[in-house]
Amino acid sequence: MRFRNQLLILVLSILIPAFLAAILAVWYVYGEERRAQENGVLEATRAFSLLVGQELQTKEAILKTLSNSAALAKGDLQEFYSIAKRMAPTSETTIILIDHSGRQLINTRAAFGTQLPHRRAPRVLELMEHYGAERTLVSDVFLAPVGKQYDFTVQVPVMLEGSLRYFLVMGVNAASLQPLLHQQRLPRDWLGVILDRQGVVVSRSRNPGQYIGKQSSEEFRRQISAGTEGVFRSTTLDEVSVKTFFSRVAFSDWTVIFSIPESELRRVPLQAAAFLALMMALLLGLAFLIAQRIALRLSARVEQLGAAADQLARGEDVSYLPQGLVEVDSVGARIVDSSRQIRRNKQELEQRVAQAVAETERAQQALQHNQKLEALGRLTGGIAHEFNNLLQTLTTSLQLARMSSTEPRVQSLIDTCNKAVTRATSLTGQLSAFGRIQDARTETVALARHVRVFEQLVENILPSNMPLQVDLPDDLWPVTLDPTQLELALINLAINSRDAMPAGGSIRVEAANETLAAPPEGLSPGDYVRLRLRDTGMGMSAEVMAKALDPFFTTKKVGQGTGLGLPQAYGFARQSGGTLVLHSVVGEGTTVDIYLPRATQAVSRTPEKTGAQQFAPSVKGTVLFVEDDALVRESVSAALREAGFAVLAAEGADAALAMLDAGASVDVLFSDIVMPGSLNGIELANTMRVRFPQVKVVLATGYSEHRVQLAGVRVLAKPYEIDAAVRELVEAAAG
Q1: What angle do CA 428, 430, 435 make, to 5 degrees?
Q2: What is the pLDDT of residues 296-317, one digit of tens each?
Q3: pTM for the whole thing?
């Protein structure tokens, strides 16, 4: 199919729905016009009902004015008769004064003193029973017996000295309401009617003399009684089919009606809809002619695009002549650029694929690295736990041995053993760097103090051609960490830098406070202290950097490196809630950034080390010592007894609780954290706080995967000195 025909089909596919939409629009306009016209008529009916109500209220006002007459108040009926005759609105209006029994006292249609009939307007008594005698009443239309004309009355009660004395009644000729209808200037075919409560015609805009006093049909009365206003179809008394709009006159419960022939209601909307339909038909026809002409011109121009596309398909240089149409020329220009753009897109796609592959490899390496560290952490944590229990036994036993012998040779051997224990403790500390953070060893510290300690420790490690520069501001934020692990991490990084600069160079250590909105991966935005160690060594290639944080990976010769330096520093940073970021360029050096989160608490007070102390066996109190390792339980229990405590020993939490339930009286619970059984040390401490709140708790741990977050519970790190344990137990018992 040719492009021109497709364009024509496209135009028709637009015009046909547009034509249908036009039909819907015409139908909608017709409906809206009818609704608007009906709403307007109903509003006019409502306004006319208000006008009739005002006319009746005017007559009520005259009667109320007369009711306040002084002549009536003093009983001068003759004077009141004169006043009432002057105030009657028209000569056909009658004002009647009736006493409480219904007897007429005066009637302005008759001379004063004339014998007057003893009757009221029809249904007035019935209205008084329904609405009450003390309100204004408007009667229905009735045929006056004297004037033989249709009248209605307005009755107002007269209250004198707080009681009902008279009724003032105004008899009004129904024809007096005709001017109200004439003032509405209704169209010739419209019919305006005022009906009383019984559906009797009070006034009529067309042929009033023929229809006033006639009652409407029962169906008509039923329709207008359905509400205070509305619209319905009906037939007039002169047999014309109309749409009737009615509204209740609130003051009298009369009803005003505007009736309009159905043909008249349809005429105006039909005219508006017909005009709209004609305009739409003309516009649609014109649009079709214009579309056909445009289709012919476009088809010729599109052929030029086809020729250019053929050249592109053959791989030729595309030549395109502008056709004078912006959209077509734009497509032509794009075809000219397509071959160059395709080549550029191909190159960019290849680069993106390579980048995606590299990012995937980095993600896999990071996952493998984390898995390795997690596995190593579990392994080294378990080893550290067992070694710390052994070291605890050795530490306690050596301290007891020192107390048992004063022979110099024995003391010298004990010192040698203590040095070995210290080295072993340092080794287990390195192992624990790959596990989770150990709360017993963490402190909130001023970072500068421990960097200065590191500076002193590496003096004998770094050669003279490798100066160490330290730049630390005075306002560094406090951080929470294991000080020993910090110093060890810095020493490991310094040794790596030394080995990377065989011909010499410089090492610079600096720190700064940083508020990070986009922190390194794994950290949340917030305040951090950045600790940086930078060297001018050989640097690392990308391949080496990808494995640098893997445990046991090293580029050094066998026996010259363990491959645990950088992994230990990384493990320390992660334990401390931060991370380590490595930057290196071959030939330019390496920079290691350690980000540590700012601590919220104040710097901890570090007790001064006073060397080996010997406790005096003067401490009093009972300690329940819970330890699953038999060697630790035996040695520490003996040491605590030596210090003066009464000691109860239990191999687990269940045994300890059984002792307490049996009535054992203790002052302090001293428990390991990692134990077999249903409860570990932390869970035992929580149970004690609920069941035995008077017993203080001190915990000890060589390694634990559980954070200790118990207020008022002291934590010791294994291996601990017995004098330190005694001090913690005494302080806990006193607290």
Answers
A1: 90
A2: 776 666 677 677 777 667 666 6
A3: 0.40
Q: What is 679-730 written as a DSSP string? A: --HHHHHHHHHHH-TTSEEEEEES--SS----TT-EEEESS--HHHHHHHHH
**Tokens in use for 142?**
């009735």
Q: Sort strands 142-143 and 507-516 into parallel, antiparallel or unpaired.
A: unpaired
Share of the chain above pLDDT 90, in %: 19
Share of the chain above pLDDT 70, in %: 77
Tokens, residue 610: 């006073």
Three-state SS at 143: strand
Does residue 719 have a cis peptide bond before it, meaning omega lies within 30 degrees of 0?
Answer: yes
Q: Which residues pair with 582 in a beta bridge?
A: 592
pLDDT tens-digit series, residues 214-231: 998 888 889 998 889 999
| Interatomic CA distance for residues 226 and 27, integer angstroms | 31
- pLDDT digit string, tens, across residues 150-168: 989 999 999 888 888 899 9
What is the DSSP-derived secondary structure letter of residue 441? G
Q: For the chain, give the mean pLDDT.
A: 80
Q: Which two tokens stand for residue 43?
A: 């509003």
Which comes out higher in pLDDT, residue 88 or 590?
590
Distances (CA, A) of 4 to 293, 301, 456, 637: 10, 11, 90, 104
Tokens of 275: 């005009």
The DSSP call for residue 316 is P
* C-alpha 445 chain-centroid distance: 40
pLDDT of residue 609: 46
**Counting Cβ atoms within 10 Å, is residue 389 exposed (0-12), middle (13-18) or buried (19+)?**
buried
Per-residue pLDDT band at 487 (split at 50, 70, 90): confident
- Residue recorded with tokens 């403790």: 425
359 three-class SS: helix
Question: In the chain, what is the straight-line distance between the N-terminal and C-terminal CA atoms, in Å?
Answer: 98
Say how far apart CA 701 and CA 440 lie, in whole Å: 7
Rounded to whole angstroms, how far apart are CA atoms 477 and 108? 108
Token digits of residue 22 = 């036009």
Please list the alpha-helical segments (H only) found in 170-261: 178-183, 208-211, 218-224
Residue 481 and residue 478: Cα distance in Å, rounded?
10
Query: 685: which residues sit within 8 A by CB, 6+ positions away?
Result: 669, 671, 697, 699, 710, 713
Residue 682 CA, chain-centre distance (Å), reads 39
* β-strand pairing of 241-249 with 526-535: unpaired
C-alpha to C-alpha distances, 545 to 246, 313, 703, nearest whole angstrom: 93, 48, 30
Looking at residues 242-261, what average pLDDT do you find? 90
Of 580, 581, 597, 576, which is closest to residue 526 (Cα–Cα)? 597
Lowest model confidence (mean pLDDT) among 282-291, 301-310, 726-735? 301-310
Find residue 94's DSSP bridge partners.
171
